[in-house]
Amino acid sequence: GPYDQIVLEANGFKIKNYFWDTMVAQHVMQPEMPKTLAYITSVNTREPYYKDEVKSDEDTKSWTQKWWSISENREKVWRYNCKDTGCTFENFLIQEEELSNGPSGWTPTFQFKMSEIPVGVRISQAGMLRDEKKHRELKGALLYIWADFQSALNNLVGRTVNTNSSKQMCILLYDELGLKEKRKRDKNGKWVRTADENALVSLVGECKAQYDNRIQKAVKEKWLKALVVCKLTMKIRGVRKVLSSYVDIEISDDGRARGLVKITGAETGRWSMSKYYDNTGIPMQTVPRDPVELEDESVLDNIEGLLELEGALK
DNA sequence: ACCACCACGTTGTCCCTACG
DNA sequence: CGTAGGGACAACGTGGTGGT
Fold it and tell me: Residues of the signal sequence (predicted)?
């Protein structure tokens, strides 16, 4: 499939063509069910589960020369690979039968999906060339903005606040500032208080209304403070998100940021994306569109200084 | 070190309200 | 009365926090 092709071609093998992908076939016939080889093998064949055979007693991270030099280990991996290829072929035979006997839409959909593979592979392998000068400037600008907002927030609250900690934020907003608790259901259906984006947006609205309706200066200021805390928190979270997900990332040695296109990633037929197979790059679908703007661009004259802010903030 | 949970980046659909 | 716009939620993937 596409994933294997990308890994193989990255290691010097050229894939000429292939006509069947068990994942694509499963995706077309049973889009809501798992598409892993382990699952379809369990459904289609009588082969006992074998996927843990190479991992059971050896940590996969220890696939070192030392580990590999033990013939027993090599034997295990070879046997595993043989089962993998054998099962894949067995799955193919069963899927081919199923596909041709299924609804009339299956075959053309399968063919269409297969034709998407080279497109997805091409996009994955191309990636995006990163402009290193711009990258430095962007990082400097984001760190500057973060530091600016963070110091304002810290001064307002009187201590350092980690806006990414929902625990800290709930204590600040509800216990210390006395705002009306925003709640949501957790996974088990239990109501818990939250300081997520929705909560902050509605708190901003409430604080604004209170501020506008109050007369006493001291009371007005209290609401203004709460309002600013919420707004700063949203801004800081946004900046940190952009930094951690899109700027502070590892990219390929050739200066390109790549992402893996998964044409069978979503039940609905949409494509999904992830980081590249080697865990570099970004899922290119979610790159923020919003521009990063500085009021005073001259702060970029000292990027070195800005980059040093990183240590103080983290 | 691992895991559950929280949070947030994208597009798209549906529903409702406000507005011209 | 048609439409613009917002909220809620659907579809995804990943990073950070804090407890075990």
Answer: none
Q: Helix, strand, or coil here: A266?
A: coil
- The answer to whether the beta carbon of residue A309 comes closer than 7 angstroms to any atom of strand B is no
Question: What DSSP state is assigned to residue A276?
Answer: -
In angstroms, the CA of A270 and the C1' of B7 are apart by 24
The set of residues with CB closer than 7 Å to nucleic strand C is A 162, 164-165, 167-168, 198, 201, 240, 244-245, 248-249, 262, 265-268, 270, 272-275, 283, 285-286
Cα dihedral A170, A143, A124, A279, rounded to 10, equals -70
Q: A59 CA, B1 C1': separation in Å?
A: 13
What's the pLDDT score for residue A58?
A: 44
Contacts 24+ apart (CB under 8 A), A111-119: A113/A24, A113/A27, A113/A28, A113/A263, A113/A264, A114/A19, A114/A20, A114/A21, A114/A24, A116/A263, A116/A271, A117/A1, A117/A2, A117/A5, A117/A21, A117/A24, A117/A263
What is the spatial distance between Cα A203 and Cα A182, in angstroms, rounded to a whole number? 8
Would you state the torsion angle of the CA atoms of residues A108, A109, A115, A116, taken in this order, to the nearest 10 degrees?
Answer: 160
Kindly give, in sequence order, each residue whose CB lies less than 8 Å from that of residue A149, ignoring residues fewer than 6 positions away.
Answer: A232, A235, A236, A239
Asked whether residue A269's C-beta has any atom of DNA/RNA strand B within 7 A, the reply is: no
10-residue mean pLDDT series, chain A (314 residues):
85 87 86 78 83 56 63 81 89 93 87 86 86 86 86 85 81 84 64 75 80 87 87 82 81 86 78 81 76 80 82 70
Q: Is the dihedral of CA A78, A80, A83, A85 positive or negative?
A: negative
Q: Which amino acid is at A42?
A: S
Instruction: For residue A238, say whether its CB is under 7 Å from any atom of strand B.
Output: yes
Q: How far is residue A251's CA from residue A131's CA, in Å, rounded to a whole number?
A: 12
User: Which nucleotide is nearest to A233 if distance is taken from CA to C1'?
Assistant: B7
Secondary structure (3-state) at A183: strand
